[in-house]
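Researcher: Let's do a round of design. I'm pasting the structure tokens now; please hold your answer until I've finished.
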């Protein structure tokens, strides 16, 4: 009992979105195992689900609403984040003041998602060490430096020139200017402003990234140079702790369905927690899947088809097409699915969590990036690690059928699978004693223990 009270406390501040909450909670568990108490500071929406069940030892604190969820739809994600940062500083500072009183000043540090940079002010005011936590790749961080140095207006004009689009970004092979994460995320001037804020690490003691050295060595070296503070690549965090923080309930019936399929025959399709598609694209996917004759497990998240609650607006032929060879769920236990012997490939939007999870299971990928840094991840999967390929152009049935054959049936897919298995072993070695990710976590813990 006495020992528990003496534990130093770490305050975590996630972004209220699935792809950010999950790795932050995994980090929390990893630090908790290392004898720190954890307080999670949340806003009013997209909170960690069933906290007392999944995180019984953690303290959860909700700060007063600074920006309602309805503003997210009205403003779009980028402007929402900018405004959230502008409006949250005071209530967060008050919250830390209260926590310091409650905890007898026993806060070892604040770890905040890089998008929640308003936390830097409270850390500075109360002289508490802070760490910035990034849930995306190191290459994405570097591309933000590139973007923050570009003149937004000039960039817009330049980007209409195909020669500029195809130009390589200096020291960032194989990135071309058109691969920079600028499309589909919202107005460019807002993106540039957000990038400038994010690359300013304020008074942070270091940057924690859910990545692995062996995947991104050159980006990590460049990032370290740009930042001038320590960078801790300690991923993949889901290998360190299996924190459950899903905002949606997992449908485990798909595991029973997978148990009945042949080894490496199934294509698993999931486009993460945010992507939305048009009905006609979904139908093209279904036609392609159907004519490929490969079994498939497809996550169709409620609300992911524009204008539909789920799949009720799709024509009857859809259910017929998918029921022959496929299985549909609203949300799957993704990590378990990717590790299932029946899964032969992953058709993904290439969110960073999905990318890491697929690498850890040695599953090759069909890459269909939508926006933000997903394009960068897809590029790395295809051109750097050689364990996936991009679905080019519009989604249409012929292309889908061809891609599925390439990945599951043909030799090219088998080669990708072999490379994926080699990469899997390297990544897994990084979290074992003495591995690079193991050491990165050890370094943070040592830093916090001596602070
Ligand atoms: C978002 C961005 O899109 C992504 O690019 C960024 O890196 C993080 O924030 P999201 O779109 O949700 O995330 O994708 P991703 O990063 O892949 O995260 C999805 C998470 O949901 C993964 O951890 C995955 O395991 C989980 N998931 C997905 C499930 O548990 N079940 C599912 O059915 C689908």
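Researcher: That's everything. Go ahead.
Model: Designed sequence:
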């Amino acid at each position: 009992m006495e020992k528990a009270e003496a534990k130093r406390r770490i305050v975590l501040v996630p972004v209220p979105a699935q792809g950010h909450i999950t790795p932050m909670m995994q980090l929390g568990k990893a630090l908790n195992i290392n004898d720190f108490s954890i307080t999670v500071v949340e806003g009013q929406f997209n909170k960690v689900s069933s906290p007392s069940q999944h995180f019984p030892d953690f303290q959860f604190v909700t700060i007063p609403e600074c920006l309602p969820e309805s503003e997210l739809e009205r403003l779009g994600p980028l402007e929402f984040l900018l405004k959230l940062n502008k409006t949250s500083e005071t209530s967060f500072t008050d919250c830390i003041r209260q926590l310091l009183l409650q905890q007898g000043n026993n806060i070892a540090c604040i770890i905040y998602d890089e998008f929640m940079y308003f936390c830097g002010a409270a850390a500075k005011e109360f002289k508490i060490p802070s760490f910035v936590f990034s849930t995306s790749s190191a290459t994405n961080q570097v591309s933000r430096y590139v973007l923050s140095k570009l003149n937004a207006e000039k960039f817009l004009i330049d980007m209409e020139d195909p020669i500029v689009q195809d130009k390589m970004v200096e020291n960032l092979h194989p990135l071309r200017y058109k691969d920079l994460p600028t499309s589909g995320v919202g107005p460019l001037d807002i993106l540039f402003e957000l990038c400038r804020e994010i690359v300013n690490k304020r008074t942070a003691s270091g940057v924690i990234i859910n990545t692995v050295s062996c995947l991104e060595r050159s980006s990590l070296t460049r990032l370290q140079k740009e930042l001038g503070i320590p960078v801790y690549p300690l991923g993949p965090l889901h290998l360190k702790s299996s924190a459950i923080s899903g905002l949606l309930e997992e449908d485990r019936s798909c595991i029973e369905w997978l148990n009945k399929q042949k080894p490496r025959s199934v294509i698993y399709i999931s486009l993460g927690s945010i992507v939305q598609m048009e009905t006609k694209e979904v139908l093209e996917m279904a036609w392609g899947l159907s004519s490929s004759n490969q079994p498939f497990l497809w996550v169709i998240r409620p609300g992911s088809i524009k204008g539909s609650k789920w799949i009720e607006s799709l024509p009857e032929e859809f259910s017929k097409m998918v029921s022959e060879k496929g299985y549909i769920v609203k949300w799957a236990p993704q990590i378990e699915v990717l590790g299932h012997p029946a899964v032969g490939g992953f058709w993904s939007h290439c969110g960073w969590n999905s990318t890491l999870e697929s690498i850890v299971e040695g599953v090759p990928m069909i890459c269909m990036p939508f926006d933000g840094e997903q394009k960068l991840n897809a590029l790395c999967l295809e051109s750097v690690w050689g364990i996936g390929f991009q679905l080019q152009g519009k989604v249409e049935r012929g292309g889908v059928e061809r891609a599925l054959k390439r990945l599951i049936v043909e030799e090219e897919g088998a080669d990708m699978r072999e490379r994926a298995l080699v990469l899997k072993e390297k990544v897994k070695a990084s979290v074992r004693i003495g591995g690079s990710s193991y050491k990165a976590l050890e370094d943070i813990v040592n830093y916090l223990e001596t602070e």
